[in-house]
Amino acid sequence: MNAETTSRIPVALTIAGSDSGGGAGIQADLRTFAFHCVHGTSAITCVTAQNTLGVTRVDAIPPEAVIAQMQAVCEDIGVQAAKTGMLLNKEIIAAVAQQVEALQIHNLVVDPVMVSRVGAQLIDDEAVNTLCHTLIPLAAIATPNRYEAQILSGLEINTLDDMRKCAQIIHEKFKAKVVLVKGGGMSGSGRGVDVWFDGQKLETLSVKQVETKNTHGTGCTLSAAIAANLARGDDLFTAVQQAKEYVTNALSYALNIGQGQGPVGHFYPLLLTTNH
């Protein structure tokens, strides 16, 4: 491969936190980018001490440092798509939103990390408000989980119809271009079923269910896969469909490591003939 060929490799940017356990955040995003043959760049927003059992410490990166990382990447390398993950506080969120506009970052996937898939709120109400009104309107797609969608819409989600209503409310309320309400936190037949709404098309997207306790990083991985597919030139709906298929395969080869919830198998083809 010559220099001219390598220069055409698509580039994606993840703006998110570091997971010391390697299952989610920046680490999951970069592995997902690499799997999709996309060069991964990063702007780290916070550093966490965590493992398969949980998070024991979180340290925020100064907003100025987050800005500097984004500028360094975009002004030299350039990006074809970007995603956001854990942004931690209102100052970081506001700084990221300002830079998305200033650097003219398109194909932005916003994973509005505010509540875990088991319902624990991760950022305060001021940060949630800033995220809703400054960053979501800039997104090509927002990918809230069940509990995040409940906060954004003000509705409780118990059924597929509830998910549909929430997607429509979030789209209208925050001027989101596309909303993908994820059903990973649902029970029974609703688990793993996502709802897409773009203002006109209301679609239910489903894949086979995978029975595993090792699901750490699925939200990060899905949004990173969508960004990677956008960077490669896919249209948004195709990018989402392919990302869901990728996550399903990665869940099928999830890693049984640690004493708690292990991560998905991002490089699952390499795990096909190994014991894990």
What characteristics describe this protein?
276 residues; alpha/beta; UDP-N-acetylmuramoyl-L-alanine:D-glutamate ligase; six-stranded mixed sheet; 9 strands; 18% strand; globular
Describe it for me?
This protein has a single domain (11-273), classed as 3-Layer(aba) Sandwich (UDP-N-acetylmuramoyl-L-alanine:D-glutamate ligase). Helix content is 38%, strand content 18%. It is built from nine helices and nine strands. The strands form two sheets. It has a six-stranded mixed beta sheet with strand order 3-2-1-4-5-6, sandwiched between helices. Strands 7-8-9 form a three-stranded antiparallel beta sheet, covered by helices on one side. Keywords: ATP-binding, Kinase, Nucleotide-binding, Thiamine biosynthesis, Transferase. Pathway: Cofactor biosynthesis; thiamine diphosphate biosynthesis; 4-amino-2-methyl-5-diphosphomethylpyrimidine from 5-amino-1-(5-phospho-D-ribosyl)imidazole: step 3/3. It catalyses: 4-amino-5-hydroxymethyl-2-methylpyrimidine + ATP = 4-amino-2-methyl-5-(phosphooxymethyl)pyrimidine + ADP + H(+); 4-amino-2-methyl-5-(phosphooxymethyl)pyrimidine + ATP = 4-amino-2-methyl-5-(diphosphooxymethyl)pyrimidine + ADP. One of its GO terms (cellular component) is cytosol.
